[in-house]
Amino acid sequence: MEEIARKLKPIDAKKLDIINATLPVVAEHAEAITTHFYQRMFANHPELKNIFNQTHQITGRQPRALAAAVYAAAAHLEDMTTILPALERIAQKHRSLQIKPDQYPIVGENLLGAIQEVLGNAATDEIIDAWAEAYGVIADALIRMEETLYRDTELQPAGWNGFRNFVVDRKVKESDVITSFYLKPEDQGSIPDFLPGQYITVKLDVEGQPYTHLRQYSLSDRPGTGYYRISVKREDAPNSDIPAGIVSSYLHSQLEEGDVLPITAPAGDFYLDMAADTPVALISGGVGLTPLISMLNTLVAEQSKREVSFVHAALSGNVHAFKNHVQEIAKQAVNVRSFVIYEKPSAQDIQEQAFVKDGFITLEWIKENLPKDADFYFCGPTPFMKAVNKALKQWGIPAEKVHYEFFGSFGDIESEN
């Protein structure tokens, strides 16, 4: 990936000066630009609604993510290697969603149009021309990265590109809100291994819905089992403005054992480094435990001698998935410790002494219970991610020891709000 970034055609110096000079005004209007971009693009190309999560459009999550990505890439045009992790994360998601090169010109045309329409007379032809070249450099980088990912995915043992039909072999309720789906290939062929922490994309055509729905779910068991497992939280409507999760509701209430689910091959840049021998801290909040369960199960199956601290934060025991599974591992494996934090423990949780702390995870608790020389992996809701990330920074944990999966704008996790 680094070699690809180095081989990119450098942007014209004069145009680079224009980009740098206009970055502040574009950043100021970034969310308005990207919101308008999606409206414009969907009006011109409604077929792309089959790819983009429409709930994220309503909540504004997708426009914010795109705004952060475009701004970060434009700010590093002189040396794209500095933002390789962010670009690779985007490329992995694009490969999983089956984004193809011929879609980039559509995005570019509508993004530039949105910039021009939002900024009005301030967006001169010279400025739009410079931003067009900047977009071309960014698109070229992603297309090349994704080309490599498509090739490697198809050439790996049992690998495939596109969507492959899998059958729901088992459906298991893990908590009041989380259900697991065990998936086996309909063609009964082999399936490729994956790196613990990676995800798949599922495709659904829901009756009464005009567009296809694509969703990415972390694999929640170790590789080498002969199946893929996803563990999905049912997303209920938080208020009247935001609908309930269409896909999660369908999976919970309508998808049954024996049904077929098309998926793409595993992807993702968030995964456990199996070559390391340092202690490992796996810190999860809510359904964010799914990729970390995959990591835990892999470490146990590989009989790793690494010191493992598995920390899970949930609202209460009612919504705590895999509780007994992790407890059993901690009892049997001397190198594994389990910590449970409940925000609002129930009377039963208190009676059973099922948690070590109530409330929220804090820096003080982390310092008292986790080894500072560990590799830290964490995943969960945005406020949880911000809290853990901030705590690890304050503790002085080096950036190379901090790993996280975050389905949203990368800037959000660093912000204080």
Automatic annotation (TrEMBL):
Organism: Alicyclobacillus ferrooxydans
Family as reported in the entry's similarity comment: Belongs to the globin family. Two-domain flavohemoproteins subfamily.
Entry keyword annotation includes Flavoprotein: yes
Swiss-Prot/TrEMBL site (Influences the redox potential of the prosthetic heme and FAD groups) positions: 93, 405
InterPro entries: Cbr1-like_FAD-bd_dom, FAD-bd_FR_type, FNR_nucleotide-bd, Globin, Globin-like_sf, Globin/Proto, Hmp, OxRdtase_FAD/NAD-bd
Enzyme Commission code: 1.14.12.17
The name this protein goes by in its record: Flavohemoprotein
Residues annotated as binding FAD: 199, 215-218, 406-409
Annotated Pfam families: FAD_binding_6, Globin, NAD_binding_1
Gene name of the encoded protein: hmp
Keyword Transcription: no
